[in-house]
Every structure is written in structure tokens, then in C-alpha cells.
Amino acid sequence: MDVTTILYVSGFLDLFGVSMIVSQIGTHARELGASPTMAGFVGSVYGALQLISSPTVGRWSDVMGRRACLIPCLLLSAVGYLTMGFSFTLTVLILSRMITGMSKQSQSISRSMLSDITPEDQRCRVYGQFNSVSSIGFILGPLVSSTIIKHEGGFYMVSSLCGSIFILNAVLMWIFLPSSGLVKKKSSQNNNSFTSVIKSFKHLNWTNLWDVFLVNFFAGFSVMLFRSNSDMIFRDRFGTTKQEMSYLTSYTAVVSALCGFVSGWIAGQYKDNYRLYKHMLYMLFMTLVALTLVVDLWTYVLVLALLSFVTTNLRVASASLLSARGGTGGVGAVLGLGDTVMSVARMLSPLLSGMAMEVSSSGPSFLGSMMTAVAVIIVSLRPQLKLHQS
């Protein structure tokens, strides 16, 4: 089994476990007595800690090796989800999100590995396939959890099952993933110190990165505003049940998986990641506006498919741009910083989404469309985004 296939398996198990529980966390917080704003705060804790851990773990993997970082991250994530299986109070639920917020970096490390072993002109295809295989896990996870969550204590059983899947993932990576050859390590012992890892960030070409990070923030923030409390949005607007929400999660994952398998072909038609990136931002704005205005459930479901298409291709184009700019020795750090940008959005979006829902159930998608408009303005005013691609 080659390294690429092994990483596809890891990505599948990762999102298979996460998708079982992620759409239920907000509802579980509400059942524990949290208001919409407090439920949003629970989600913000995860994003706040990802803000710190993403670039640090990414840079550490550049220096120490991908495998040496991936396996501990998977095991610590398992601890977080197993802790969630005992979240009978909001305090324990927040603690579990803190643990996963610090350790859930497996997707980023896997993408860094794929960048190490894949030629630049093939990265869109490989990233797309990785996202698709991972999305298959996101399809199956809610289908499995929907049969468990409806029983008494279902949330706790699903959380424990999610933690067990992460343990399985770690064991498989320990057995099958090669321990060398994935990244060039520094020969000096000093260069492997934590202080040296932190100091090494100053060597990145920040002038070549900040514009993409800024656009990614607003685009990611806009989507997360909608998705972070999507279970509550559907319940308030259309009266969906927990089981129906699991089906909707699987539905969007199916669309994402299908889009991922063709994202490499789509990128090839553009022959320019910047143009793909720009056009997907335009479509994202229109999609979020539609989600704000649509009142019929089935039309809403169709628009969700378009949202999955747009976000899948946007992620692939963004990862390719960042990998190209990061260079051979800085891919892990740059992708980790990209995740940090998303972590800022992930930290803020549940709280702001919850506050927007206090006003209207259409509030998150409306606010998201405004954030996307900012991203569109930036790419329109910064044509050097294209010039910096190579």
C-alpha cells in the first residue's frame, strides 16, 4: 500500500468519526441548558485553541517529520472525543472541545504529506481525491450515528465510538505509514527544539502569503457562520429532527465527495488556480444570498448542494495556492497557518452565528454573504494574487 493510499484511509477514518458527532454538539449543548449564544461559545473554544496549535504543529511536522506528529495528534483527538462521551455537564463538554482543539491537526498534516510526495501540477487532483475519500467518511458517519443518536444516551455512545475510531486510525498509521522519507529533517539537534520551531516562522515569505490568508479568512468565516449552527438553523426554520439532520449532513457530504473527484479536472480546465479561486468566491456569495432568501425546504436543500460544490473547489484551489507559495521546506507551516486563519473564523463564527440567530434564523447566512462580499472585493483589488501564484 503506497503512502498516498494510506493517507486517503486516514482521511476517511478522520471524517467518518468527526461527522458522527459534529452536527450534534450544538444541540447537545442546548439540551444541557445552554442558550444559542452559549452553544456558540462551546464551538468557539475549539476554534480558539486551533488558532494556537495549527501553525505550531504544522511547523513541528516540517522539522520532526509528519508521522511523528500525526500519530500523537490522532491519539489526543481520541482522548477529546472519549471525554465528550462523559459530557453530562457543559463544563465537561467544553473540556472535551479544548482537548480536540489543541490536537485535531490530522487533516492538515496529511495534506502536508501529500504535498511532500506529489508534483505541483498534480496537487489539485490529489487534494481533490483526498477530500473526496474523506467526504465519503463524512457521508457514512451520520448514517451510522443516526441509528444510535435517537436512543437514550445516544450522544454519549456516539462520542465514545468516535474516539475509538481515532484510536484505530492512530494504530493503522503506526503500522503502515513509513517512518522516514516524508519530509527532510534538520540534522542539528538544536533545530528540533520547540524554540527553534517557533523562531523559524520569521523565515517564511509573509509578503507572498498574507493576501491569500486574508481572503481565506473571510471566505471560510462566511461558510462557518452558516455551518457552525446549521442544526439549529434547520430546526428553527424547518422543524427538522436529529435524525433528519444526520441525513442532511450525509447529503451534503455526498455532493462534496462527488465534486472532489472531479475537482482536479475542473482545475485542469482553468489551468490557473487563481481564476478558479476567484470564480468560486463569486459563486459562494450568490449561494449564501440564496440561502438567506429561500423559504422552501427542498429548494434550500438544492442550494446546499451548490454550497458543497463551491466550498470543495475553493478548498482545493486554496490549498494548491498555499502549497506553491510555501516552498519545499515550509509546506507544513504554511498549511498550518492556513488552518490557523480558519481557526480564527472557527473561533468567532459559532458565537456570532448564535447571536445572529437571536435576531433571525436567516441571520447567519446573511452575515456570511456580507463576509464573502469582503473577500470578493479583496481579490478584485489585489490582482497580484495571481502574480504571486508561482
Provide a brief overview of the structure.
The chain is an all-alpha fold and 390 residues long.
List keywords for this structure.
390 residues; mainly alpha; 17 helices; globular
Mean pLDDT: 81
Straight-line N-to-C gap? 32 Å
Coarse shape: globular
Structural class, from secondary structure content? mainly alpha
- Helical percentage: over 70%
What's the tally of helices?
17
Our estimate of the beta-strand percent is under 5%
Written as H for each helix and E for each strand, in order along the chain, the element string is: HHHHHHHHHHHHHHHHH
The number of strands is: 0
Main sheet record: none
The whole-angstrom Rg is 20 Å
Q: Could you name the ranges where pLDDT drops below 50 across 5 or more consecutive residues?
A: 183-190
Walkthrough of the structure:
This protein has 390 residues and is mostly helical. It contains 17 helices and no strands. The chain is globular.
Explain the layout of strands and helices.
Elements: H1 3-21, H2 25-31, H3 36-64, H4 66-84, H5 90-103, H6 106-117, H7 123-149, H8 154-176, H9 194-199, H10 210-227, H11 230-238, H12 242-270, H13 273-293, H14 297-326, H15 331-359, H16 363-381, H17 384-387
Helix pairs in contact: 1-6, 1-7, 1-8, 2-3, 3-4, 3-5, 3-15, 4-5, 4-6, 4-8, 6-15, 7-12, 7-14, 10-15, 10-16, 12-14, 13-14, 13-16, 14-15
